[in-house]
Amino acid sequence: MKTTAKTTTNEKSASEQIDAIINAPGDWRGDKLAELRAVILKADPAVIEEVKWKKPSRPMGVPVWSRDGILCVADTLKNAVRLTFPHGAQIVDPKQLFNTRLDSKTVRAIDFHENDAIKATALKAIIKEAAKINAQKAGERNTKTPARRKS
Question: Which CATH class is domain 8-142?
Answer without folding.
Answer: alpha beta
